[in-house]
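It is worth pausing here to work through a concrete case rather than discussing structure prediction in the abstract. The textbook approach is simple: state the sequence, then state the predicted structure, then interpret. We follow exactly that order.
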Amino acid sequence: MSAKIDPNDALVLLIDLQAGIADKPLTVRYKGLQKGVGGLSKIAKLFELPVVISALHLSAGSDAKMMPEIGQELGEYTVHYRTSADSLENEAIKAAIEATGRKTLLIGGTLTEIAVQMAALSGLALGYRVFVVVEAIAGASPRTEEAAFHRLLQAGATTTSATALCLEIAGDFREPKGEQAMAILGELMG
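Step two, the predicted structure:
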């Protein structure tokens, strides 16, 4: 198996990128997180990667207000709600991921040390290749996020960046998708 990410085998899992969680003081400023999530969403759209979105109901009966960059880039989407820290413990989310037939998870979300870590560990246990996209995540504190990274790497997950991902799956930069990928890279780095 190649160490590289195959866009035909990858899907994006976005977790808890919602008001009340993603907009709290985190290891990444909200504007930076928005930029990273927007970039990952653009990559997903450009390369036709399925996207599964997981969230929590923070108040009884109300839908989560997701980060606007998700809808701006992806258009209409479905939010799958769960009641535990681990998205993959929710049968509807797990089924949505399985329905794609893809075995590489690209994860973005908050909080790194809770929801991102739990989904990544469960994904590994279920046989998925797991990549945590660092521009599209944020943790509660540098210390706890660092502990999560250590645990994830020891368990077999990999970290990557949206900038590297963009060019890794872009192919020839002279082709239309390659040119568009270069534009996304410029936005991520600008």
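Step three, interpretation. The helical segments are 30-46, 68-74, 91-99, 112-125, 142-155, 162-168, 176-189. The chain has a mean pLDDT of 95.
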